[in-house]
Specification:
This protein is α+β, with helices and mostly antiparallel strands. It has 3 helices and 7 strands; from the N terminus they run ββαβββββαα. It has a 5-stranded mixed beta sheet, with helices on one face. A two-stranded antiparallel sheet has the order 1-7. The longest helix is centred in the last third of the chain and has 12 residues, at about 140-150.
């Protein structure tokens, strides 16, 4: 589980939201990372640069004591191609939807069946995240959604690995030391 505490110094992009100030009417929040935050995010995500990060969010009360953050995040990042190491610029446009409940809330329990096994619906909603205190960090949520959308193996369009195909793998394979036994018969 993620830890969305606003006093977490490891979060390079932060926007604390006081849960007590959120009502049933959604609060609109527009976030944009500044130059220092973009630099810190690039370092945290291990990319060449983060050129832009913007989010449009709505934060509303969920059930009795939780909150729901819904919206979208857009980012422009530059990564190194895994083949040529040339810079590649990528556009990320991701929907954001996350529910938070106070620590220890019954709403965050994982459903189990009679045998005690977890019952998870892959197409169903995610289990709510828990928060401590009275604040949720909407900036950390945005950063997490972008981080999950980053291509871990960026490759410039049209570039292929040369000399490392399946044919070469077959050629490089050494014969098994047990190959001599295939013709051996027991008497």
């Amino acid at each position: 589980m993620s830890d969305y505490r606003p006093d977490n110094d490891d979060v390079p992009f932060s926007y604390p939201v006081k849960v007590g100030h959120i009502s049933a009417n959604p609060v609109r929040i527009a976030l944009e990372a500044d130059k220092d935050e973009l630099k810190a995010l690039a370092k945290a995500w291990n990319v060449v640069s983060v050129d832009a990060l913007k989010a449009e969010l709505q934060v509303a009360r969920w059930k009795k004591d939780g909150i729901k953050i819904v919206g979208s995040v857009k980012a422009t990042i530059t990564q190194a191609c895994i083949v040529t190491l040339e810079p590649i610029t990528s556009q990320i446009d991701e929907p954001v939807e996350q529910i938070f409940v106070p620590e220890g809330s019954k709403l965050a329990r994982i459903v189990t069946n009679d045998e005690g096994e977890m019952v998870l619906d892959p197409d169903g909603p995610d289990i709510p995240e828990q928060f401590t205190g009275d604040t949720v960090d909407a900036g950390a949520v945005v950063a997490e959604f972008v981080a999950l959308a980053i291509d871990p193996y960026p490759r410039k369009e049209g570039v292929e690995f040369e000399g490392y195909g399946a044919e070469q793998a077959q050629e490089e394979r050494k014969p098994s030391p047990f190959a001599v036994l295939k013709d051996w018969k027991k008497d």
